[in-house]
UniProtKB/TrEMBL annotation:
Source species, domain of life: Bacteria
One Gene Ontology MF term: metal ion binding
Name recorded for this polypeptide: CRISPR-associated endonuclease Cas1
Annotated GO biological process: defense response to virus; maintenance of CRISPR repeat elements
Enzyme class of the recorded protein, top EC level: hydrolase
Organism lineage: Bacteria, Pseudomonadati, Pseudomonadota, Gammaproteobacteria, Moraxellales
Length: 305
């Protein structure tokens, strides 16, 4: 299992050599074995890299994330369906019934609300956590009561203050969006690796979104980003720093516990893999299954980011 996230924040020339990422930067050279890398982030606008390296990154199932002029993630390179049974999984994904999709969405939103409640209980001395726990237990198939939105409204007001909204242009939202984008790319990588089509979502179904399924799976993982953000010092100029971006990327390697499946802790990257594996099993059950297997989803454990 790959365990490194590599961030290139200064001008550099990247190439492939001996199954490793070769970095030439400021007159110095370094190498990182491809098998160690899960995510490669190109932060500087002055980076060159070879086509051979791009191909090798795809073969090694490494997510390459690019940043735009706003220095927020704006694109990623994903491997092209390397799964040995991609067509079988894709057919099962496309054949998922509407009731089954609603039950999956119910499981996802339940765990998202439970993780949000867990974070509030940890950092805000239980303020608002009981309300979110009650919402979590009350979610019905397909969330027709939109308890996810009710929970989000209460959650962010407790976490960031009564005047906070996700639409504001500020450091809090910039940091959150950066972390969410990194998680989304890592989830898309896992989906492709297990033969899923990221554009075909369970609940998210926008025709203009190539990552609808990743936007479904990410929901219970968002509180891990939120936990990291609230523990970061806010810069005086309100601009997200390179060190903070690196910290958010490194969050993929922090420990979580799973709510189902084998007990014990694992990294968020491993939890993402297990969640996607469970999702594929749900797809493969088909309409004849009496019940879908519970998604393997994480809960907050360990030290704060």
């Amino acid at each position: 299992m790959s365990w490194r996230s590599v961030v290139i924040s200064k001008p550099a020339a990247l190439s492939l050599g001996h199954e490793a990422l070769c970095i030439a930067q400021s007159g110095q050279k370094a190498q990182v074995p491809l098998e160690d890398i899960a995510v490669l982030v190109l932060e500087s606008q002055q980076i060159t890299l070879t086509g051979q390296l791009l191909s090798a990154l795809a073969d090694a199932q490494i997510v390459l994330i690019t940043l735009g002029k706003s220095f927020l993630p704006n694109g990623c390179l994903l491997p092209f369906l390397p799964h040995s049974r991609a067509l079988k999984v894709l057919r099962a994904q496309m054949a998922l019934s509407e009731p089954a999709a609603k039950r999956l969405h119910q499981e996802i939103i339940r765990q998202k609300l439970a993780n949000q409640a867990g974070l509030l209980a940890r950092v805000k001395e239980h303020s608002g956590s009981e309300f979110l726990h009650r919402l979590s237990k009350a979610v019905r198939s397909g969330d027709p009561d939109n308890l996810e939105a009710q929970g989000a409204q209460a959650y962010f007001k407790v976490l960031h203050g009564a005047d906070f909204t996700r639409q504001q242009t500020n450091w809090l939202n910039a940091a959150s969006n950066y972390g969410y984008a990194v998680f989304r790319a890592a989830i898309a990588r896992a989906l492709v690796a297990y033969g899923c089509l990221p554009a075909l979502g369970v609940f998210h179904r926008s025709e203009q979104n190539s990552f609808n399924l990743a936007d479904d799976v990410i929901e219970p993982f968002r509180p891990f980003v939120d936990q990291c953000v609230i523990n970061m010092p806010r810069p005086s100029d309100d601009i997200l720093t390179t060190a903070q971006k690196t910290q958010l990327i490194g969050l993929l390697h922090s420990d979580v516990a799973l709510v189902s499946g084998p007990m014990g802790e694992c990294s968020i990257l491993v939890a993402i893999d297990k969640a996607v594996m469970s999702l594929v099993k749900a797809f493969m059950h088909g309409d004849g299954a009496k019940s879908l297997p519970a998604l393997v989803l994480p809960r907050l454990v360990g030290k704060d980011c």
